[in-house]
Amino acid sequence: MDVLGISAFHQDSAAVLLRDGRPLAAAQEERFSHIRSDSNFPRRAVRYVLREADLASAREVDWVVFYEKPLRKFERLLVCQLQAFPRSAKIFSRGMFQWLGDRLWTKNLLCNELGIEPEQVLFSSHHQSHAASACYASGFDRAACLVADGSGEWTTTSLAAFENGQLEMLLENAFPHSLGLFYAAFTQFLGFEADLDGNKIEELAAYGKPTFRDSMNDLIQREDGALFKIDQGPFRFSFDPEHFWRPELEECFGPARKPAGPLAYQEGDSRHADLAASLLQVVGDTLLHLLAELYRKVSVPKLCLAGELAALPALNARLLRESPFEEIFIAPAMGDAGGAFGAASLVAQAKGDPASFALMDLALGEHLLPDPGAEAKELADADAVRQALLSGLNQGPVAWLRDRFEWGPRCLGKRSLLADPRNAKGKESINQGLKHREDFRPFACAVPSEKAGDYFELPSGADRALRWKQIAVPVKELGREKAPAAVHVDGTAVPQLVDREADPELHALLTAFGEQSGVPILLQSSLDLRGDPMARGEAEARAFMERSQLRHLVVENRLYTQPD
């Protein structure tokens, strides 16, 4: 049985194709449209997953499932904006134009776009889709699940139990009381984009201290039964989906930072970093409150996480460290893209295809699109590719593209920018000269799994989180000495543990670099410029090279070089 899962119209539109309960292909629309976090209907992603499954059209799939229920979401938007009238007048008219166009008639849209019959279309709920995206891919027989994001239809945060392929939603917090929106509001307050820059806030927080913790705590009332309420006075969640905070927030926390304005995160003036640190602390406190109640309801040692807040490695590490749970699985696409995966899994399970399994390989995206340039040098074999990469690393960062791209927001070696971690100042040149992004931002790294314990303090119970760059860990003295560029200012790093069996090419490169340099670690980042999605194929990689200071690029068995 083939099930096509689709998410769209908020952020990170995506398509997923399950066959007999297992994923054949999964991709976000941004990889094809070149629009970061593209929210449009995922036409190109759908075409890709159908092609990968050898299907001529969507008419050949058994079911098409959308990741949320549009009528319920429209009900919430209508009720909240009418309650906020006349403050919501401008937003109301624009929102109604969007909803009364295509979004309210999603079933018709799916039928028209895909050429399918209405009987093939099903709908899941937003938070069930999120929860399923983690639980069904975890391989756990029994688990508890926490979903924390902005908002779905009405639900903003949910607790669930998973047992033998069955998902039960236990408790839900209702809009507008949302930790995800609370986090997004302060992301905006600090001058960043609410839906796109959540990771920057966590990275900035490492430079600060939670000096505003008490003031932020005053905005959240934690209640018995794992619920919480957020003081709505300083926020605009109910009626403005684009600008989340009101002037009252400045009365509590001082003036907001303007986008691209000066950022206070250094010694002497660390106010913005202190706000970020306080935010991480308060959000973590609240999630731990929820997890304590979840454990009382579902006393199992295994935890699944999904939703936008599960994209924060340092926060994930704290939840594993301080919650009652002993083992954690984080949805690889934790945001709305993952809803397509979860919705398809729910339908497959309900229609008779057991969909619960241990997802190990995230290379579910499109095979690399070749577009060789005349200047490319052909490399004879895998050894020649590895030697070209090692030679390039001696001179500066290198880019490496191969195989299918990964599912989810993390780059795990298929569309990578790699660099020597031994020079602590190396990350500054990458941030400025290659990525064109903020100086304070750190880089993740890749390390052979059998060597990782020499350099990092690895927690138990986080096997795939460590392999998918989903959790931050303390760096040991040897790691700080040998790979200082991989260490963030708080002494942590986000490593990708690479198994020889899972990715023999990357493992071999890391091993060879270790033999050459004395440290088997490479800085690793996605191949993209600030504000762009990750590179899809060879054409995008060559364009990146032209627009940056990159001097060495390897695409499959082709080497590109630029003079200094």
CA radius of gyration: 23 Å
Helix content: 25-40%
- Spatial strand arrangement across the major sheet: 13-22-21-14-15-20-16-19
Please summarize the sheet with the most strands: 8 strands, mixed
Structural class: alpha/beta
- How much of the polypeptide forms β-strand, as a percent range? 15-25%
Counted by DSSP, the helix tally is 20
Q: Can you give a write-up of this model?
A:
The model has no long low-confidence stretch (mean pLDDT 94). This protein has 20 helices and 22 strands. 36% of the residues lie in helices and 18% in strands. The chain is α/β, with parallel strands linked by helices and 564 residues long. Helix 7 packs antiparallel against helix 11. The termini are far apart. The strands form 5 sheets. An 8-stranded mixed beta sheet has the order 13-22-21-14-15-20-16-19, with helices on both faces. Strands 3-2-1-4-5 form a 5-stranded mixed beta sheet, sandwiched between helices. The protein folds into 3 domains: 2-139 and 331-350, ATPase, nucleotide binding domain (Nucleotidyltransferase, domain 5), CATH 3.30.420.40; 173-330, ATPase, nucleotide binding domain (Nucleotidyltransferase, domain 5), CATH 3.30.420; 377-561, DHBP synthase, CATH 3.90.870.
What's the layout of helices and strands?
Elements (H helix, E strand, L loop, with lengths): L1 E6 L6 E6 L2 E7 L1 H4 L9 H10 L10 E4 L3 H14 L5 H11 L6 H9 L6 E3 L2 H13 L3 E7 L6 E9 L2 E9 L4 H11 L8 H8 L7 H5 L2 E3 L5 E3 L17 H6 L17 H27 L4 E5 L6 H10 L4 E4 L5 H15 L26 E2 L3 H12 L4 E4 L13 E5 L6 H10 L8 E5 L3 H4 L7 H5 L5 E2 L2 H6 L9 E2 L1 E4 L5 H14 L4 E5 L11 H10 L4 E4 L2 E4 L3
Parallel strand pairs: 1-4, 4-5, 6-11, 11-12, 14-21, 16-19
Antiparallel strand pairs: 1-2, 2-3, 6-7, 7-8, 9-10, 13-22, 14-15, 15-20, 16-20, 17-18, 21-22
